[in-house]
Amino acid sequence: MHKIFAKPIFLGKKVVFLPQCHSTNDELVMLTKKSQLPEGTVVYTDHQEKGKGQRGNVWVAEPGKNVLMSILLLPKFLNPQDQFFLNLIAGLAIVDTLGQYFSGQIQLKWPNDIYVNQKKISGVLVESNTRGSVLESCVVGIGLNLNQNGFHVPNATSLLIETEIEHDKFDVMDFLLRDIEKWYLKLKSNRKNEVLAAYHALLMWRGEKRLFKSSEQEFIGEIIGIDSYGRLVINVQDKLKSFGIKEVEFVR
Ligand code: BTN
């Protein structure tokens, strides 16, 4: 089924529904190459055959049960070095949307996995196209486990599992578009400190001693937050160290 989203100001004015596809991110990237699409164009699907996750992982979702969508943003106002802010605002928007459905704790696991009760409910994959020093276009892909009732991995959950009722996919997508637009407009009006403060307030394991792994070495450290490049800052034996996305793993 296909629906026109009405509420947001510019996100979702143009919507492309594909009953199935390889990846909504790939489809939207292809569409941007073929024609000039308006900012806020949305591609969504019922089933991805090759859904992409972070770090080259696959994103697997039961057909017809989940939110699988990609949104085109044209953040020419943003320095390419600051593109990680798009990950932050997407994560924050998803937290706000989920907050409409239940009152439990929702957290962001660095860089931008959305966790409920220590289980992952949603993930974000941003793919950017930079020309020189200009961020030309960004595709923000969102996978949100909605009405799926079981997973093959132990640490995944869905809104159905958490609330014990099914939810209307289009309502959730409407909320998501509205909330992404809200955070995107804050970013556009240069309220980066507000975005960072909100992100840090929700950052999972912040201030706790945890076990990490980097370059095959395990170490104990305390998450301090993120630095001006979006890297994770960990206090390791009273020294602050920054890690990029492929440079550190959470062990426990
Ligand atoms: C993650 O690894 O947490 C990121 C998952 C992102 C999945 C979404 S589903 C819609 C969009 N299309 C893709 O191929 N990936 C993203």
Can you give a write-up of this model?
- With 252 residues, the protein is of the alpha+beta class.
- 25% of the residues lie in helices and 32% in strands.
- The strands form 2 sheets. A 7-stranded mixed β-sheet has the order 1-2-3-7-6-5-4, with helices on both faces.
- A hairpin with a 2-residue loop joins strand 6 and strand 7.
- The relative contact order is 0.15.
- Bound molecules: biotin.
- Biotin (BTN) binds next to helix 1, strand 3, strand 6 and strand 7.
Briefly say what this structure is.
By secondary structure, the chain is α+β, with helices and mostly antiparallel strands. The chain contains 5 helices and 12 strands. It has a 7-stranded mixed β-sheet, sandwiched between helices. Strands 11-10-9-8-12 form a 5-stranded antiparallel β-sheet, with no helix packed on it.
Strand order of the largest sheet: 1-2-3-7-6-5-4
Cα gyration radius (Å) = 18 Å
- Portion of residues within helices: 25-40%
Q: How many helices does DSSP assign?
A: 5
* Structural class designation: alpha+beta
Distance between the termini: 41 Å
Percent of residues in beta strands: 25-35%
Largest sheet: 7 strands, mixed
The secondary-structure element order is EHEEHEEEEHHHEEEEE
Give the low-confidence spans.
none
Total beta strand runs = 12
Q: Average pLDDT, to the nearest integer?
A: 94
Compounds present? biotin
Task: Characterize the overall form.
Answer: globular
